[in-house]
Design brief:
3 helices; two-stranded antiparallel sheet; alpha+beta
Length: 99
C-alpha cells in the first residue's frame, strides 16, 4: 500500500500538526495515543521498544500544505490508525481493513 498524506490545514505545525500512524492489528489506540504525548522530541512517535513494535508505518508530522508518502505491506486483518499529535487520536482514528 502507498499512502499519500497532505495536511490541508492552515494552523502552524506546532499548534496543529498531523500525521498518520498505522498500528498492528489489536493495538490499543488510546494507550498508544496517550504514550505518544510524551514523545514531542520525535514528532509524537514513541521510541520505547514495546511501543515502537506496535507501529506498522507512519508519516512525518506535517504542517500546513506539507505532504508525505509511505509504502507498507499488510496481511489480511484490521489495522488501527490514528494521528498521534496530542489530543487528536480521540477523533482522528479509524481502521484499515486488508483482505
Amino acid at each position: 500500500v502507498t499512502l499519500v498524506f497532505k495536511n490541508l490545514g492552515n494552523l502552524p505545525k506546532a499548534a496543529m500538526g498531523h500525521n498518520v500512524v498505522i498500528l498492528k492489528s489489536g493495538s490499543d489506540v488510546p494507550k498508544f495515543g496517550m504514550g505518544a504525548v510524551a514523545a514531542a522530541a520525535t514528532e509524537y512517535i514513541p521510541q520505547d521498544d514495546a511501543t515502537k513494535a506496535l507501529i506498522v508505518a507512519h508519516t512525518k508530522l506535517l504542517g500546513p500544505g506539507e505532504e508525505d508518502s509511505i509504502t507498507f505491506t499488510l496481511e489480511a486483518g484490521a489495522y488501527p490508525f490514528l494521528c498521534s499529535f496530542p489530543g487528536h487520536f480521540a477523533l482522528m482514528q479509524g481502521i484499515i481493513t486488508a483482505k
